[in-house]
TrEMBL record:
Alphabetized GO MF terms: isomerase activity
Taxonomic placement: Bacteria, Pseudomonadati, Pseudomonadota, Betaproteobacteria, Burkholderiales
Localization per record: Cytoplasm
Species: Paenalcaligenes hermetiae
EC numbers: 5.3.1.1
The protein's name in its UniProt record: Triosephosphate isomerase
PROSITE patterns reported for this sequence: TIM_1 (PS00171), TIM_2 (PS51440)
């Protein structure tokens, strides 16, 4: 099975109605039908999902959210459910981003519960994993990744095959210091091995962390890098589309 490349933008907590409209209209205009070989997705803050639905419906660009609740509905003030995301046309949701893990205490168990809720609602979860700089320096990358993925790998192969995994080394996020293609590939190959053992060898594995128009092509040459999760560069239409075209 050949895997379609996937390039996702994570806007994080950036944007406004005006800025988003400008960015999205430029993406639509410049994209045309040029990248049918690549799935292109933007993940916006929750309040802007209606705007994405309005502006992107009928375009080749898909949209998603950056987080969601593990619960279906109920007394969970401030939370947003998977079915609410579906109401706004989302097909994708980022889960377990390192900022959620580090700043909001999300555990592997919580990320698993959110993943199950997303799958149940028919969303594609993009589960983020990655080691910190200290863990990297202590050669703990594989054990950290294994820990983060272990519970997910116990999902049935049918469910697991509906996931996307994003490897985002924390030390590469927002630092301008991307992992080298070889460094990223070695971790992706390790993740691929785990997925193979779990009978889901074709799950797409994205790399994230300071991806830009200059380094994207070399990253994408690696056999187990199936696309990118892009932060800062996804806020500039030209940069984001250059990455998608790389
Ligand atoms: O966290 C990221 C995407 O989820 C990566 O962010 P940067 O591309 O800004 O390093």
């Amino acid at each position: 099975m050949t895997k379609k490349r996937l390039v996702m933008g994570n806007w994080k907590m950036h944007g406004s109605l005006d800025q988003n409209a400008q960015l999205l209209n430029q993406l639509i205009a410049d994209l045309g039908n040029a990248h049918s070989q690549t799935d292109i997705v933007v993940c916006a803050p929750h309040p802007y999902l209606a705007q994405l639905q309005q502006l992107l419906s009928g375009s080749p660009i898909q949209w998603g959210a950056q987080n969601m609740s593990e619960h279906e509905a109920g007394a969970f003030t401030g939370e947003v459910s998977a079915t609410m995301l579906k109401d706004f046309g989302c097909q994708w949701v980022l889960l377990g981003h390192s900022e959620r893990r580090a700043l909001y205490g999300e555990t592997d168990t919580l990320v698993l519960a959110k993943t199950q809720a997303a799958l149940q609602a028919g969303l594609t979860p993009v589960v983020c994993v990655g080691e910190t700089e200290a863990e990297h320096e202590q050669n703990q990358t594989q054990s950290v990744i294994l820990q983060q993925l272990q519970q997910l790998l116990e999902l049935s192969p049918d469910l697991l095959r509906r996931l996307v995994i994003a490897y985002e080394p924390v030390w590469a996020i927002g630092t301008g210091k991307s992992a080298s293609p070889e460094q990223a590939q070695s971790v992706h190959a390790y993740i691929r091995g785990l997925l193979q053992q779990a009978e889901a060898p074709n799950v797409r594995i994205l790399y994230g962390g300071s991806v830009n128009p200059t380094n994207a092509a070399d990253l994408f040459k690696m056999p187990d890098i199936d696309g990118a999760l892009v932060g800062g560069a996804s806020l500039k239409a030209n940069d984001f589309l250059s990455i998608a075209a790389a």
